[in-house]
Structures are given as C-alpha cells and as structure tokens.
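Residues pack. One example:


***
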Amino acid sequence: RITAPGSYYLPENLTARASRLGIEIASNAVTIDLNGFSLLGLVFPPGQSLNGITTDGTRTNINIRNGHTLAWGSNGIDLGDANSVLIENVTAESNLGNGINANRAVITQCVARGNAASGFAGNGVAVDCVAVENDIRGFTWTGTISTCLAADNDGAGFSIFGAIDRSTARANSDDGFVVFGGSIESCLAEFNEGDGVVVITDTRVFGNTARQNTQNGFVINASNAFTAGNTSISNTGIGFLVLGTDTLTIRNVAGDNGAAAYTFGSSATHGDTLFLTASGTVTSSDNLANLAY
C-alpha cells in the first residue's frame, strides 16, 4: 500500500495473496515503475485475488509504466477513481475483469490480451495500444483513440463515444467499430464477423476502409451523420447501409459486396450512384457521386 507521494519501482515479480489487492495507491502524485517485472494474480483458484493496481478513493497524478499485470481476479489495472492518469508500456493479460480500466487517462503503448471483460475500458486518450483476444470488447472507450489495434476479440473491436483515427479492427467476433457520436477517420475494418463500421449518431465518417467483413461494410444508423471518401469492398452484405435521418453520403466507393453496393433509407441525402463501366471509366462529372462496381 502506497501512502505517500513519490516514485516507486518494483524490484522483482510480485505474487498475489488471496483476497488481496496487488498495489493499492492511497496518495496523490504517485509514479510506479514496474521495471519490467510482473504483478501476478492467483491463477488457481480463479478470482481469489482482486485488482492488480488500484486506488483507495479518488487520487490524482497517477503514473504506471513498464511491466505486466497477469491473472488478477478483477481488473489488471483499475484507476477508475483517479484523475490525471498516465499508463504507458504495460501489458495486462488474462485478468478476470478488464485489462486496464481508467478514467481521465492517457494510455500509450499498452497491450491488453485475453481478459474476461474488455481489454481497455474508461475515458481519455488511448494511443498505440493493442487489444487482442478479450472476451467482451477490445476497447470500451469515451474520448480519443489513435493508431490502435483490436483483433480477435469475442465482441466488437472498438466501442467508442468520441473520435478514433488510423486504427484497425481485425477478425473480431462482432462488429469492427461501433461509434456513438464523434468521428472515425482513416481506419480499417477487415475480417470481422459482424459489420465493419457501425455509426449510431452524429458522426463524421471519413476515409475509412471496410473489407471482407461477414455482414455489411458500413452501417450508418444515425442522425446527422456525414459519410464521405470511404471504401467498402468484398463484404458479404451491403457495402453502405444508410438508415439514419438527416445524413449525407457522398464520394464513397463500393465494390464486390455480396448483397448490394448501397442501400439508402428514405430520409438519407446522398450523391447519385455511378456504376463503373467494364473498362473502368467514369462517364459522369458529378463530383458528389458514390461509385460502385
């Protein structure tokens, strides 16, 4: 238990005791350098240890870096009650809750693998992080995500309220991206068993690619969504399924999708659909058109 501000480091692996926390932070302004070592929960019987790292009440300026949290009975790291959190270069693996749960946090260069809930959960900024083989979702997040990967998770790759860019959702058992308002830009959704990209409300959808997903490429089930410059290819269902109201869909490309290139609801505003000729030429000057082949 840490009760004073300062910098602390782990000199060796730390193994859990039954019904105990790994490290409890009971002070503000604490930095913990795991120093490449691991906090080890009780693998058997499962659930006998608690969180790997957590706080005692609301704490501020908490930094965690450089190590592993493995097989804890709840979250690998739980800083849900903390403010001004920085977590970097940490792997959270095989925990029975979330890998990393943090609010008002910056999380960078972290990995969450094989956790029983989400890999990453909370709010703030996540950059250069990887979530693989988690049981619920890769990321359940409010805020900003950039240059992250979610792969082989049992649920959606990313569930986000906020902005996400330059990230990849690959081979997840549900949708690749589910965006509840904000923006998704320059992302790739591929080989997911659900839809590639699902937009729920008030979202800008720019420059993304959805390919070879088991259901639809893009589902715009939102009001006030602006969808432009995206590519949807070789999905089993529809390339772009636009169901929302007050939406604008222009300058997209759909090719080789199994059901249809585009399906628009009655309230959707969209550019005309232009089908490429056999030679691949475009015979229209409509610069708002959606292309199909």
The radius of gyration is 22 Å. The chain has a mean pLDDT of 94.
